Each structure stands twice: as C-alpha cells, then as structure tokens.
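Sample 1 of the test manifest.
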Amino acid sequence: MSCPHTPEIIADHCDPDVSAEVLQRHRVHLETCKVCQQELLTLRSVPGQLLRWQSIPVPHWDRSGMVKATSERKPLPNRFHQWPAIRQWLPLVASLVLAVAVIAQTSMSVGPQGWSVSFGVQSPGLSAEQLDEYLTAHANAQQAETREWVEAALQTHGQTTADSIYQWMTYIEQQRALDVQRMDAGFEQLMNRDFQTVDSVKQLASYVMYQVAP
Amino acid sequence: MDQTDNQLIAAALGGSLPAWDALVRRHERRVYNLGLRLLNNPDDAMDLVQDVFLGVYRNLYRFRAESQFSTWLFRIVHNKAVDLIRRRQTGPEIEYWFEEGTPEPANDLPGPLDSYLETEMNQRISQLMSRLPPAQRLIVELKVFQALTFEEIAPLQDIPVNTAKTRFYTALKNLKAMIEAQT
C-alpha cells in the first residue's frame, strides 16, 4: 500500500521553513492515513543519524598557489571591457562604404578649386541649351578674333594684292584648323570630367583594399 | 574584528593574497566535508576543494554583492561536485535500489554493509551516502547537511519542487534500509 502524500509529508517534516498551514494540513492527513504514519515513524530518525557527522579539518594545502599560477599567465581578455577589434571590421566597413557609394550614385570631381563629392543622379553632362550657348560664344569669339586679325593685316599691308590675299587665306585656314583643335580639346575636357569621377572612385577603392589587405 | 566576505573579496580582487587566503580558510571546511560525504575519498574531496576555489578565483570578478557569497559559492560547489561524482563513478551500481515512486522498501541488503558497524561514524555515513544513486546523494547533502529548502534545491538540480521532495523521500528510504541492514 502506498499514499501519494507520503513524499511531501516526509520532506516537509524535514524542512524547518515549512508554513504552519501546510503542517496543519499534514497533521489532519496523518490522523487518518496509516501508511503516512508508518513512513514518518520509520524515516524520521534518518536525518538525525546522518547529522552525527563530525566536521573534519582540511589538510594543509597551498591556497595561494592558484593565485600565483594564474597571475603568471597572461590574463584572459575581458571582452566586456575592451574596445571591439577595429581591424576585423575594416573589410565590412569598406564594403558598406562602396555599396553606399554605388547605391547613392556618388560622384567625385577634382578641379583647380579642390575636390567635391556629390550624390544622386547628375543631370546630363551638357544639355542642348548649354551646348548652343557654348557654340554661340565660341563663334562670337572666333569672329571677333578674325575681325581683329583682318584689321591688323590691313594696317600692315596697306592695300589688297594677290599675294596678300593668298597669305590671308592661308592664315585664315590655319586659324580655322587651330579653332577646330581647340574645340576638340574643349569637348574632350568636358568628357573627361565624368571619367575623372569614375577614376577617383576607382582610386578610392584601390586605396581601401590596400589598407584592408593583411 | 573579522572582515566580511565582501570586504575580503574586494581586497582579493585588488591583489591581496592574505585576503584571498582568509576567504578560502573561512569556507574550505564546509566544501571539504561535503566532498568527503559525496565522494567518500579524502583525495577526491581535496580535489573538489581545489577545483572549487580555482573556479571561485577565476570568476570572483563576476560576483555581485547582491547575494551572499556562500550561496554563490555553493552553486559552484554543487556543479563541481556533480562533475566529480560523474567522473569518479566507478563502483558497481546496486540494481535493486528504490527508484522514485517505488512504494515498498527492500530490507534484504546483503552482508558487506555489516562492516560499517565497526567503522567510525563519519566513514559509515560517507559510505552510506556513497551507496546512494548520485541524484539522491546530492539531494540528501543539500537538504540534511546544507539545510537548503526544497525551493532552493529544485532550481539547483533543475527539477520541480515535488520531484525534489519525492527524490528525498526515496533517498531516506534507501538509507533507512541500509541502516537496518547493518543491525
């Protein structure tokens, strides 16, 4: 025969902190349960027999030995009190910077006034109106230059001759050729602004990779 | 005037060897006797003492004065003791010990326990304890010798309170059977 309350009654009997209410409930149960009565009578003496243990002093041992042994070794890093190792995050940071630069369409330009960084979609390098203005201004400048040159030539040669006309024509053709070269150079310079931006980003990327490489 | 545990800990953390020595001396006896009862071997008990205080020294900076040092220490002692019991468990297991929930005690233990009558009290007790299954041995140690409540024991062993009470009851029945078998 067994009773489901026996373990709790025996355990609580050995627990000085159990409440009076619980003890009263156990007393009521014990009045009617012969199994629990018998188990309590049988087992109540066991803890007392165990407590006849005589405390034994500790043999001599080197208590400070572990302190010395531990202090001789390099202390373990306390990761809660250290700055994070910056080097291990550099590749990730560099990748993030490049990703942001690509996503934000970053462009960098270097000019005589220094360098500048801009974000977002840039307007086309040269709009049609700007190009018209540029060509008009260039044509005006060219006409003014030609006019000055003709006036200077008239003053120098006095009157028109077949030789002087030939010389004028030769000179004008040379000037035209020079103008065409200047225009080519101007357009190339305009085009190079975009290439410079791309080149600057490439240089930045190669610099970062160089710094990150172990 | 004796320094408190917290004062000794603060000094030990500052590098004071005498403070560490005093702290160990204050608590080592309790740990050593626990080891003797649980492991039934002075060398193993000494190993437990050294293991425990090495662990305490390494983790001393983690101790927060919110709880008592002895409570914090005992958690380390419990874990180290469980480890050592598992490692030292080489003796033959007695198959017919009562398991939790088994209602009837067995009183027919064989003769080897008779020799306990001729041994000293401590040796008898530690041998009785050593014959218990490790889980029951630990709960008797925690309840009877360390005077913990079942509400404190249950989380230490990661079991419900009622399971702790049932395990304790079963351990007492086993011990009673062993004592009766001696007489």
